[in-house]
Amino acid sequence: MNMPLGHLRVAFLGPRASFSHQAAAESFGRTSADLLPHVSFADAFSALQQQEADYAVIPFENSTNGSVVQTLDLLADRNDLYKDVKVCGEYYLTVHHCLLVRKGTYPSGWEGYDGSITKLYTHPQAWGQCEQLLSQYFKGVERQDVSSTSKGAEIVSKETEERGAAIASRFAAEYHGVDVLKENIEDRADNTTRFLILRNMRAERTAQLELEQPNVLGQDRPAAPTTRKTLISFAIDHSLPGALANALLIFKAHGLNLTSINTRPSLKRAWQYIFFVECGRTPSDENKEAVHKALDDLRHVTEFCRDLGTWNDQLG
Amino acid sequence: MNMPLGHLRVAFLGPRASFSHQAAAESFGRTSADLLPHVSFADAFSALQQQEADYAVIPFENSTNGSVVQTLDLLADRNDLYKDVKVCGEYYLTVHHCLLVRKGTYPSGWEGYDGSITKLYTHPQAWGQCEQLLSQYFKGVERQDVSSTSKGAEIVSKETEERGAAIASRFAAEYHGVDVLKENIEDRADNTTRFLILRNMRAERTAQLELEQPNVLGQDRPAAPTTRKTLISFAIDHSLPGALANALLIFKAHGLNLTSINTRPSLKRAWQYIFFVECGRTPSDENKEAVHKALDDLRHVTEFCRDLGTWNDQLG
C-alpha cells in the first residue's frame, strides 16, 4: 500500500518539538508528512475544519492528570464550528523527561557532573513530575517557568553565559541540538498521554487514503482488530428523572461496553452537562450496526447526540 | 434552635477575602463562626480530618469552567488520608467581579472616570471573565497576574504611586478597604460556583449540632426537602465487559436519579478511573433506605465504593 504520504498535512499543538509534535511524528513518520505547529487547540481544530490540514494530533487524556478539558470543550463544539471533525485514531506516548544542557558543556556526562548548573527551565507541570531528581541534586537552584518544555530546550541551546539546564524530551533535545545529560528523570515511569488523531470527514484527501489508523501503516496490521472504540457526545434534559441512566442503558442494550465518561458544562443552562461517552466492541457480524443503532435510540432520549468517530483500540 | 455557633471553626480555601471565604461567610454567618483560611485544598481537608476544623467549604464545580479537579482528587482519597470527611451541604455563589481602586482615588465614581488607571491586577482566570469591559476601556493597559483576586485588592489598597485597579469581588473590596469603581463587570451574569460543605463524620461537635445544612439555620427550613443529593465514588474492573453500565444501573434500580458523573485517574493502573456519581431522590417512605441498598449492591460489582455523604439540594 503506497500512499502519497509526502503530501499529508498534520496539525499538532505547538510549539515545534512539543510532546504533540513527537506524537504526530511517531504516528505519521518523521519524513513522510508535513507536520504543522498550531499555537492553540482551537487553531488546530480550525485548520482541520477548513481543510488546511488533513489530520490533527491532539492530547486527550493523561494517565496521571486526567482529561484535557480544552480538547473536550472543542469536541463539545457548542457553536457548530467543527462539524466535520471526527476521531479516526489514537496514539499513546509515554512521557519521558530528560535533563538537557547546551552541546559540549558536560563532556563527561552525568557521571562527571560537578554541580555547576545555576538555572533550570521547564513547563510548570514538569517540575512536579521530576521531584526526586530535583530534590536530590538541584535543591535551591533557580527555577524559571517557560511556556513549554520545548521552549526550555531552545533557551538552553542559545545560552552563552549562564549554566542552564532544561527539563524536556529527548525529541526536543534532538530538535534543538542540545545534549542529554541524564534521561528518564521522571518520578513515574508510566506517565502516558493519549492523543486523538482527528480528520475532516468531508475531506476527499483523507477519504481516498482510507487511513483510519495512520500509525499502523507499514506495520503488520492485524486481520481483525481486537477492539473498536467509539466516542459519542450527548446532552440530556435533567428535569426528566432517569434520563441519564436511560441514555447510558442504550449502550449496554447494543453490546457497547462503556469504558469512560467525561462531562463538561453545557454553557446553555447552569448545571447541565455535555456527556462524552467512550465505548468499545469486539467487531462481529452481530454488532456491525451497533453504533448506528445506539445513535438512533439516543436521539429519542437526548437533547442532542453526536457520533464523534470510531477507531481501532491501540491498547487492546 | 440556639446553637453555640460562636465556637464553630470553618476551614476555607484562602487567602482571606477569596470566593471560598465569601461562601463560608455566607453559609455560616460572618460573626458566629471562626473562619479559617487554608493555603491549599489538601490543608483544608487535613484540618477537617484532624478535627482542627468543624466544617470545610470547598469549591466543587463552576457553571462555566466545570469540575474542580483538586477537590475530586482529594475526595478520591487514594491514600486513605481523609476517611472521616463527608459532604453535608452545598452552597451556590454567583461570581460577581468589580473594578476596585484605592480609597478616595476617584471620588466622582465611574461616571467621572478619566482613563488614568495605568495597571490592572487580578487572577489569570478573571481576565477572560471580564473581556468586554477590558477591551472597551482598558486596551493596552498593563496587566499583572496575581495569585488570587483578593491579593489584587490588597495590592491596590497599599498602592501609593501608581494608579492601579484590581478585579475582585465586593467582599474583597470590603475586606481590604478599597472603593468599588464599577460593579458586575463580568461578561456572564450567571457564572456560579458550587461549594461543598464538608464535615468530619466522627467529630462529636458537629454531630451534636445536627447541622446537615448549616446555611439554612435561621431561615424557614422547609418541612420536607424537595431533593436529597448523594455523592458516591467507586472504581470498577474494566476488564469485565458491562461493569460500568451495571454499576450505573444500580442507581436506577433503587430510584436514585443520576445527575452528574465525574472521573479521575485511579493512579493504580493507567486508564482505570475513579467515578464520582451524584444522584438525587425526593424523600419518601419507600426510598428511605435507597442509598444504603444501592451501596450494598455496588459492593458486589465494584472494586471499591464509598458513600461520600447526603445533603439537601439547594437548587431544587
Give a verbal description of the structure:
The structure is a homodimer of 316-residue chains. With 316 residues, chain A is an alpha/beta fold. Chain A has 3 domains: 5-94 and 191-203, D-Maltodextrin-Binding Protein, domain 2 (3-Layer(aba) Sandwich); 98-183, 3-Layer(aba) Sandwich (D-Maltodextrin-Binding Protein, domain 2); 228-312, Alpha-Beta Plaits (2-Layer Sandwich), CATH 3.30.70. Helix content of chain A is 27%, strand content 31%. Chain A contains 10 helices and 15 strands. The first copy, chain A, is elongated, with a radius of gyration of 22 Å. The two termini of chain A are 25 Å apart. Mean pLDDT of chain A is 91; it is low at 1-5 and 211-221. The A-B interface holds A 62-67, 69, 190, 192, 194, 238, 241-242, 244-245, 248-249, 251-252, 257-265, 267, 270-271, 273, 275, 315 and B 62-67, 69, 190, 192, 194, 238, 241-242, 244-245, 248-249, 251-252, 257-265, 267, 270-271, 273, 275, 315. Chains A, B: One of its GO terms (molecular function) is prephenate dehydratase activity. Chains A, B: Residues 232-312 form the ACT domain. Chains A, B: Its EC number is 4.2.1.51. Chains A, B: Keywords: Amino-acid biosynthesis, Aromatic amino acid biosynthesis, Lyase, Phenylalanine biosynthesis.
